[in-house]
Amino acid sequence: MKKVLPVILLLGISCAAFSQRTAKKNIYLIPQPVSILQGEGSFTLPYQLIIVTTGNKELKKIAQQLAGRLSLVRGHPVTIKEAKAALPKSIFLSLSADHSIPKEGYRLKVTPAAVSLTAAEPAGIFYGIQTLYQLLPGEILSKTLADVKQWTIPAVTIEDYPRFGWRGILLDVVRHWFTKQQVKDFIDDMVQFKFNVLHLHLTDDQGWRLEIKSLPKLTEVGAWRAPRIGRWGEFTKPAPDEPKTYGGFYTQDDMRELIQYAKERYVTILPEIDVPGHSLAAVASYPELTCTTDSTYEVNAGNRFMIWPGNGTFYGLLDNTLCPANEKVYEFLDKVFTEVARLFPCPYIHMGGDECYKGYWEKSEACKQLMQKEGLKDMHELQSYFVKRVSAIISSKGKKMMGWDEIMDGGLADSAVVMSWQGMKGGTAAAAVKHAVVMSPNDYAYVDLYQGDPVAEPPTYSMLRLSKSYQFDPLPPGVDSQYILGGQCNLWSERLYTMRHAQYMLWPRGLAIAESVWSPKGKKNWNDFVHRVENQFHRFDIEEIKYSRSLYDPIFTAVKDSSGQLQIVLSTEIEGLTIYYSFDETYPDNFYPAYRAPLSVPKDAANLKVVTYRGKEQMGKIINMPIAELKKRAKIN
Ligand code: ACM
After folding, report:
1. Whose CA is closest to atom 2 on ligand 1?
2. Residues 6, 159 contacting (CB under 8 angstroms)
3. Which of 189, 247, 488, 528 is deepest in the core (most CB within 10 A)?
4. What pTM did the predictor assign?
């Protein structure tokens, strides 16, 4: 007898029951598919496995990827055959003329006799295979031969397709440099969860990372900076004669290779050239591009050059902007976008447009004259003038311009696509005036922020817990869905010195974003998601992908009570954990007092140490929280 899970959910039977049932059958899919029907038994991969395809060239390539993975971990070859129908005990990949299968969607049927995967286009087959991997033992992701006696796939019928066509991740390759191989590995990681856009942030104050053949100094000068390691933003200013040994860039051949690699995995690479702010690397290479034309500027090494007073305002200690009143700037940008447009098949080019400090424009005579000539009344309109010129350049290369939501300030260029990062209000406003939008709000999708208490995490700024990122919905109420292309998370790399740490910041929050952009909204369920995330942790271990376990750590709330004393409230992000604690400077375990009610601090205690357990198993890390820190948070002197 078949169990119809979507119907069970619709009937409102508890999600805990759903979790148990999925757990019983070892089905832990992320993102959750549109529908699953579980069957009886399972398909066991035979020793001599055959993958049958209906003959399409692209399908054959996908079959080769699948065969490559299976033969690597199983240690014996897989045969690929062309046929019109499945063979017994085979995996059958077929393209169907059935137009009821949505774009990128697939139908997967696993029975004890065979596996059949059907889609209307190759991308659907590719996503069906990602699902198939998640149905197989985690060892399918091993880097080498795996010790698995029987490779089985539970009997199941899945119908699936994405909620949004744009399912992106931004990787900042500027603040820290990631090699071509690292980017390829990153693509392999993201496609497992059906992401399909890799937004490469290629230029910024700290580097220019793409070869532009007509402007060689961009990479001769702009790709390199003085090396620094430690607390980003607090580094010493490089000495004038200090060797610039940190950095790198992608040659156009490198980028072509990456684009092809991504394409074979159904990922589009979106290039971002961030102007007119965030342009110090360009300015260091070609000082005549600023209003100040100061030739002493150099690529920033993580030393302070912008001041952020903390209320959303900022000012620059030097001019990192392109001058909107200088025609040479538009000639420069024409060269850059000509080469970028030729290189990248992506229909969009992202021109940044964010966080442009305009203090140097205000002082510039050339800007004043331009504003008078063009009737521009303020700095927003001046930036809008610049953005519209950039939009015209990008359109002239046959591409659509995309930019951060600041491109709306002073008037939005026709047909510009808005990437909404300062919350979703910019995207909502842009959709209201019929502009296409990608939502990547900092309050849900900035995966470079803290995911646990700052006392127990590497330094960054602001907080985004997994549970909050799971609430991401790229389609806010009242917004016309036809303008929302989708959503993405952003992995800025100021504090990501290594790819290992980039992984730690991305996973598991990237899983929450993946489910938010792929799965039907009604299918999202936090407790069930956590259950699947925990299973995914085991798979990440096998894959040797680093991830954060901060969801197991307690949340501290410091409260000043009516008598002015500190009360400490502890909670957990997920259910089923017990918190143990100590004030005596020793490390707690599950034989220590369990947290039951808000804690008062014993006289003279200096630190609270906490740890979480599930039953007898330690789940979180031991966190040492200074009482002084909690008093500061509760505003107790
Ligand atoms: C941004 O985070 N400045 C787009």
Report:
1. 421
2. no
3. 488
4. 0.95
